[in-house]
Design a protein that fits this description.
- The protein has 221 residues and is of the alpha/beta class.
- It folds into two domains: 144 residues, Response regulator (Rossmann fold); 61 residues, Winged helix-like DNA-binding domain superfamily/Winged helix DNA-binding domain (Arc Repressor Mutant, subunit A), CATH 1.10.10.
- The protein is 51% helix and 12% strand.
- It has ten helices and five strands; from the N terminus they run βαβαβαβαβαααααα.
- α7 crosses α9, α7 crosses α10 and α8 crosses α9.
- The longest helix has 15 residues.
- The radius of gyration is 18 Å and the shape is globular.
- This is Response regulator transcription factor.
- It comes from Pseudaquabacterium rugosum.
- InterPro entries: CheY-like_superfamily, NreC/VraR/RcsB-like_REC, Sig_transdc_resp-reg_C-effctor, Sig_transdc_resp-reg_receiver, Tscrpt_reg_LuxR_C, WalR-like.
């Protein structure tokens, strides 16, 4: 039996994934969390007092990237640094062409867009549980092209995970106060991230950030 933990800050999304996985006889959802804090507490609880690194509380962690506080990418970095045996499957609303490769580099075993066929998530969980990478044909094509294309780097590739997240949220029309609340950060911290993004991308204001994000496929036009 493949044991799964769901980590997404939207209860409705968690319910949809849970109901989808419930139809698979070989998969069982053993817990849910809305953010990093809840996830850590849940992992300790399921480990029954054992070290959750040595005694993984699940086989697969279905993880969203956009979480309040620590992002899903942050969570993966922590798990990787700890040497956790948990396999991470990212299920996100973010575009595959910008976030899938970043997630895989952070340690994810697979990436599925939330708009995909629900059965794709079932297949992805099974594949990841076996220790194999799960990528869609679109991501596979991106990987092939990245190997054969000349080595070039987009300006936003230099951004940290949190800086990229801030860029996307600003370009999506969210105010700094809204971003701060959603990410459980102070408005001052978000302002610092925004300033770093502007500097690294050589941009002047939010309007230019939005144009950049649209032109580079980070958000829809």
């Amino acid at each position: 039996m493949i044991q799964v933990i769901l980590c997404d800050d939207h209860a409705l999304i968690r319910r949809g994934i849970r109901d989808t996985l419930a139809d698979a006889p070989d998969i069982r959802v053993v817990g849910e969390a809305a953010d990093y804090g809840e996830l850590r507490a849940l992992m300790r609880q399921l480990a029954n007092g054992q070290d959750p690194v040595r005694q993984p509380p699940c086989d697969v962690l279905v993880l969203d990237i956009n979480l309040p506080g620590r992002s899903g990418l942050d969570v993966m970095h922590v798990l990787k640094d700890e040497g956790s045996a948990i396999k991470v499957l990212v299920v996100s609303m973010y575009p595959e062409d910008q976030y899938a490769i970043r997630a895989l580099r952070a340690g994810a075993y697979g990436y599925v867009n939330k708009g995909s066929d629900p059965q794709q998530i079932v297949q992805a969980v099974r594949t990841v549980a076996q220790g194999r990478k799960y990528v869609t044909p679109e991501i596979a094509q991106m990987l092939v092209e990245s190997l054969s294309a000349p080595v070039t780097e987009n300006a936003h590739d230099k951004l940290s995970d949190r800086e990229l997240q801030t860029l996307v949220m600003i370009a999506s029309g969210k105010r700094l106060s809204d971003i701060a609340e959603e990410l459980s950060l102070s408005p001052k911290t978000v302002s610092v991230y925004r300033a770093r993004v502007l500097e690294k991308l050589a941009l002047q204001n939010n309007a230019e950030l939005t144009v950049y994000a649209i032109r580079n496929g980070l958000v829809g036009g």
